[in-house]
Design a protein that fits this description.
60s Ribosomal Protein L30, Chain: A, alpha+beta, single chain
């Protein structure tokens, strides 16, 4: 989706993560480093009771902008 708007991971400025179960932080950070190197965007993480559909356990919302 980023590419369709002429953007890349460098344009990501904010990430919101909503989870209904414990996050595997070791896995998340290993993937994060592949995408962002060491310049991480601002991030909010929240544990909630449920998302819109019961089969969804995690939602990741990404904001990107040309700055």
């Amino acid at each position: 989706m980023l590419e369709s708007e002429g953007l890349s991971a460098e344009n990501i400025i904010k990430v919101n993560v909503w989870a209904t179960e414990k996050i595997d932080w070791e896995f998340l950070y290993s993937e994060w480093e592949k995408l962002f190197s060491h310049d991480y965007p601002a991030m909010t993480i929240g544990y909630i009771a449920e998302l819109g559909l019961p089969e969804i356990k995690i939602e990741i919302e990404i904001w990107a902008a040309k700055v």
